Amino acid sequence: MKESTAKEKMLKRIREALIEPSPYVIPDVDFESPIYVQSNEPLEIQFAQEFQHIDGKFVFCETKEEVVENFTALAKQFGWKDIYCYNDDITQWFEGTEVKIKDKIWDVLEAKVAITKCESLVARLGAVLMSSKLSSARKLPAIVDTHVVVAYTSQLVPDIKDAFEAIAAKYGERPPSLIYLAAGPSRTADIEKTLVMGAHGPKEIYVFLIDG
After folding, report:
1. What b/e string do you get for 155-192 counting C-beta neighbours within 10 Å, with b at 16 or more?
2. Which of 21, 51, 83, 148 has its CA 20 to 30 A from that of 77?
3. Sheet holding 179-182, edge to edge
4. Which residues, given as ranges, of the chain have pLDDT below 50?
């Protein structure tokens, strides 16, 4: 009997395929090779270029004294006040300087500038990897206008995969409850397609990278 409709022809082909299915061979998939083209630039150069491309502010420092000097100059230039930092070692850098660092957790809602550490700097993305294991990294950067990250060149990693491997090696069986990437200032264009900076986070993000 001749099939009268295209539907009947299709159903016949499906039935024949079910009776004698073709062998399905799963190809070998390489999950280890990098997907993206590898750059020959040093990681600090890659990070600086990508970070600035997404409106981040990058400051390279050879020593912690240069961090204090550059930060003090920026604080004067932009009139930064209500500067908060809950890392004692960083706070001690500013003792005896014009910059007054606040560290009282109950006054955190007054914070305008936050200084924090980070877990890693992802060079390919120009992004900062943060976690809840860092002091105040869950709350403080979300409520300030300016977020200042202090990091070392030893924290630079090529890609996200390397950053997560570093997290696993550092914390083992007790990983952070929150891990997130800070990729430039917070922004949104959800409302009438108008770009708004600082919608759900800082309007500016600085990375002070120390050689070491």
Report:
1. bbbbbeeebbeebeeeeeeeebeebbebbbbbeeeeee
2. 51
3. 156-157, 120-122, 127-131, 179-182
4. 1, 198
Question: Residue 59's beta-bridge partner residues?
Answer: 208
- How far apart are the C-alpha atoms of 212 and 62, rounded to whole Å? 8
Q: Say which DSSP state 98 is in.
A: S
Phi–psi pair at 39, nearest 5 degrees: -90, 145
The predicted pLDDT at position 198 comes to 47
pLDDT at 196: 55
Q: Does domain 40-210 have CATH number 3.40.190.290?
A: no
Provide the pLDDT for residue 155. 97
Contact assessment for residue 44 and residue 193, using Cβ atoms and an 8 Å cutoff? no
Q: Quick one: pLDDT at residue 31?
A: 73
Query: Could you identify the residue written with the tokens 């900076």?
Result: 197
- Please give the DSSP secondary-structure letter assigned to residue 109: G
Long-range contacts of 185-192 (CB under 8 A, 24+ apart): 185/55, 185/56
Domain boundaries along the sequence of the chain: 40-210
- Which residues neighbour 162 within 8 Å (Cβ) at sequence distance 6 or greater? 120, 122
> Residue for token digits 């986070």?
201
How many angstroms separate the Cα of 164 from the Cα of each of 78, 153, 159?
35, 17, 9
